[in-house]
Every structure is written in structure tokens, then in C-alpha cells.
Amino acid sequence: MAEPRDVSVALSTASVYPESTATAFEIAARLGYDGVEVMVWTDPVSQDIEALRRLSDYHGIPVLAVHAPCLLITQRVWSTDPWVKLQRARAAAEKLGASTVVVHPPFRWQRQYARDFVTGIWRMADETDVRFAVENMYPWRYRDREMLAYAPDWDVTRHDYRHFTIDLSHAATARTDALEMIGRMGDRLGHVHLADGRGSAKDEHLVPGRGTQPCAEVLEHLTASGFDGHVVIEVNTRRAMSGAEREADLAEALAFTRKHLSSAARVRRP
Question: Checking CA distances to 88, which of 25, 43, 63, 260 falls within 20 to 30 Å?
């Protein structure tokens, strides 16, 4: 068995939406997070490496990961060419000292990109020390209909990638067993998006402990297995009625995460 190690807990800048990237750095510092994951999206600051470096230096909060602009709303951010997006994400990670680029599988209508995605990700991974961690997604559902929106597959364990990201809210939406998926990822699990869900067709990103996902068990497994990546809190606080309520949710998520990471470490250490 691997020795337990301290796992860094980062705040996704997406967790403060509709507040800004700059606000995420401020909140992460105030609450005592170990770092941030920058979601590159329509906020100009999230796209500006020098602005991100200044925020990191000012708040004393490192950028641990960069989430490439893979969302529907970011189709024109950092180019319309998906490979250029990944090249820029890698360059940002290298310049900011981040260890990981998070990337989604292509949408099915990105046919050429999807056709070359697996080999292309391997090629890019061979060119850098930054991890390209491909994230599990989910089928899109409407009423009783299901649409497979991602290619080659929303279940990234069905293909050969060097590193994976597990997102527990996505696992809930896909109605798949997160612990079984982590088992299939094995030692290629390089990154974790921690959030909860109840199996709704909507990607809920609840505060850990408020849904049905095995968040505590996953965290304990990470510590016990010698996981060497980062855990990123990626929750939805859009319904928060105030800044104080948003910060309370993010403080609760951080406390939950550290509690279950450290409980496994206490069990294993003499």
C-alpha cells in the first residue's frame, strides 16, 4: 500500500460564479485554500496570464491547475481551434507553475477533433511535464430521451489516456458509480473535481455532503492510495443570496474535504 501524503485542496474559480476570477483568488486566500484552479472562460482576467500571475502573487495563492476553455459558452475563447486552446492552456500552466490542464472530451459535432483526440492528447502530454487530465462527462438527458453529446465517449475510462480527472457531480449526472470509475482509472487518476449530486439530469455541483455521491469515501481512498494530484472544490454557488452565504458554502466544502482526507491519514499513520 502507498504511504499517505498531504493532498492540496484548491478552489475552482468557477465556484464563485457569477463573481469574478479575481474574487475567487481573494476568497481562496481568506478561507485558507491551498491554491486555485483557473477556469478559463469569458472573464477576461481568466484568459490573461499576467493578470493571473499578479493575483497569485498578491494573494499568496498558487495556480495549481488550468481548466481549458471546453464549455459551450467558451467556444470562441482562445481561438475556435480546440487544439490551439489546449496549446494555450499548456503554456498558461507552464508559465503559472500549474501541474495540470483539465480538458473535456470533444463534443460529437467536433468530428475531426474527436477523431484525433486520444492520439492528440498523448502527443501533447509527451511534450510537457504538465498533466493533461481528461475529465469524465455524462449523457445529456431531456425527459425520457438521452443524447450522447461527447466523443469518443463521455466515460473517459473506455479510452487510453495518460491521466484522468474524476468529477463526482458528472458521475452523479451520468448515474455511474464514482468509486468503480476511480477503480478503472487506477494510478492514472491525476486530478479530482469534488462536488456532490443526486443523479439529476442537471449537473448540480452541490457542496460535498449534500447529495448522494460517496464524497467522503473517495477522499479517504485518495489518501490511503497515495494519490499525488490535487482535489479541487468545484461547486455551484449561483443561488447564494449574499457573498457571506457563498463563502459559508465554500468554507463548508473545504472543511469537509480536509476532514475526510485527514481521517484516512490518521488511520494509516502509527
Answer: 25
Whether the CB-CB separation of 185 and 155 falls below 8 Å is answered with: no
pTM for the whole thing?
0.94
Instruction: Enter the DSSP assignment of 225.
Output: T
Neighbours of 57 (CB within 10 A): 10
Q: Is 209 left (phi over 0), alpha (psi -120 to 50) or beta?
A: left
- Furthest-apart CA pair in the chain: how many Å? 53
Cα–Cα dist 55/122, whole Å = 32
CA angle, 157 then 265 then 67, to 5°: 40
Give the model confidence (pLDDT) of 162-174 as tens digits. 999 999 999 999 9
Angstrom distance (rounded) from CA 127 to CA 90: 10
Instruction: Give the start-end residues of each E strand in 104-175.
Output: 131-135, 140-142, 145-147, 163-167
First to last CA, the chain: 14
